[in-house]
Design a protein that fits this description.
Shape of chain A: globular
Order of helices and strands of chain B: EEEHEEHEHEEHHEHEHEEHHH
Strand content of chain B: 15-25%
Radius of gyration of chain B: 19 Å
Number of strands of chain B: 12
CATH class of chain A: Mainly Alpha
Number of strands of chain A: 4
Largest interface: A-B, 37 and 35 residues
Mean pLDDT of chain A: 88
CATH topology of chain A: ABC transporter involved in vitamin B12 uptake, BtuC
Structural class of chain A: mainly alpha
Oligomer: heterodimer
Structural class of chain B: alpha/beta
Shape of chain B: globular
Distance between the termini of chain B: 19 Å
Radius of gyration of chain A: 22 Å
Largest sheet of chain A: 2 strands, antiparallel
Amino acid sequence: MASIAGQGDRSDERLRRENRLKKLLRRPELGAISGAVLVWFIFAVAAGDRFVSLRGSANFLAVASELGILAVAVSLLMIGGEFDLSIGSMIGACGMIVAILSVQMGWNIWAAICAALIAALIVGAINGLLVIRTRLPSFIITLGTLFIIRGLTIGITRLVTGRTQVGGVKEAFGYDSASQVFASVFSILDPASARGLSANFPISIVWWLLITAVATYVLLRTRPGNWIFGIGGDATSARNVGVPVSRMKIILFMLTAAAAWLVAMIQVLSVGSADTLRGESREFYAIIAVVIGGNLLTGGYGSAIGAAFGALIFGMVQQGIVFTGIDSDWFLVFMGAMLIIAVLVNNYIRKLASEAR
Amino acid sequence: MATPILEVRDICKYFGNVIALNGVSMKLHAGEVMCLLGDNGAGKSTLIKILSGVHQPDRGEYLVQGKPVVFNSPRDALDHGIATVYQDLAMIPLMSIARNFFLGSEPTVGRGLFKRLDIASAKQIVRDEMAKMGIDIRDPEQPVGTLSGGERQSVAIARAVYFGAKVLILDEPTSALGVKQAGTVLRYIARARAQGVAVIFITHNPHHAYPIGDRFTILKRGQTLGTYTKREISREEMIHLMSGGDELNNLEHELREFANDAIAQQLADAIHEEA
């Protein structure tokens, strides 16, 4: 009792101790974190060392990190009450911009990277403006831009190069420094490997963790973060209390486009070539990861950490299935089922959280 | 008489060929509750949307403390100390009380890149302000969805008063509430008035309006039928003006019920004590 009294007027005799547990339950990312632990154990048993080893971990973390970068940005937008389906095409477009400018036009690759970023930000801003001006659902607007961007990428690439793939990025000016930033690899000797192979952890994992940390800080500890929850929860009331709703939404669309750009840079610099079809269906994978991460599809509720763990689950399942030797075709079945289960679990948790106490 | 804190003169508002407001005038002084009464379609919502900066009037003058103003957004109105609490849009259910309370005007510490929310003081302020309104909240972090309708309205009113509202516009704050909860909200309106806030209380329920109001402006079909002080108008006359007399017989029945309404009686007593 003494310790409770010591907290002074902050505590309330009507708050029971169980509330700590409920407080934990109220966190939107709880489902995704426990799901990730569960999935890890399932594959640790089913696939054994190949999954648990450093090499296996590097493998699924690499997949998870690229999706995670997208998912974290998408989660911010989804909490803000909107969708962005155009990110899949954006990945293809950004990669192609860099490849064409640096290989075909002979630009310094850093200039090409900046050009791609500017293009992505402009498309993001256009998405946001269209959603705000037309008041159409962002699902429709970005479904449209998804096709427009993909079509433009294929059309322009064929016009300029006559092909749908552009290689030779590794020979471009400035490739070495750019690949340091976007495509370097940390090699650690894997003690579990009998042949002395090393595990390669790509730098995308660092980007993923960094972006998750920044997004979480912004969401929970800054004014714009509070606004994101507000505009997703109820845009009209948020506007009525003075939140710059339109500006925030446009910024969020620009952020998802920028995340797509980052993933495109990671891919194009590590592979050394761009393909017009790259990034296909990534928009849906990202939404699945975000929803598994406990984010509410209709906005106003969720977390960036949850989205990051959703992407981790995605990566573990995708690579874990390969390690178990099961036909990887089953991966899509598993992810689809997982999505539905996750939504059901999240609805239940949210009901617990918001019921009258 | 002192300058009115808020005044509109001959306000007109058209939506296409619809005349929503046709020459509405009214005055509001600090520390008084002005009830804006009218049936559905009388133009109450349009008028408060003009007062709160959502719409701009097509004709007429809008004066705050004697000076003409033009509001382009609700933010402009807020900057002039005019805060509006909407009936259904007051709060965001999935956000915590503290986050709702400060939405749009969050307290921060640090500067530049390190500017961050001051969560601890936000919670403390919410607790203190709600205590001032007579509500002892258990946990400022609980989602607003867990509060009752009356508590939600009270949080919204407390928020507006805390952020320095000189004029508080309440859009049908009691219409969705039960008798007891409506009584709670009416009590907070009285408290806000006691703090010197001018209140515009929109309602179509004369039973809620009469006990709390100092003055009554009655809107009908986009025009004012006049402003009356409590001394100038009886409850019966007020209802008569609002309804145009046709439904008077029906209302009389409700009226008799009202006489037995303990909460309303209690309120009337409370107001009497204050005066």
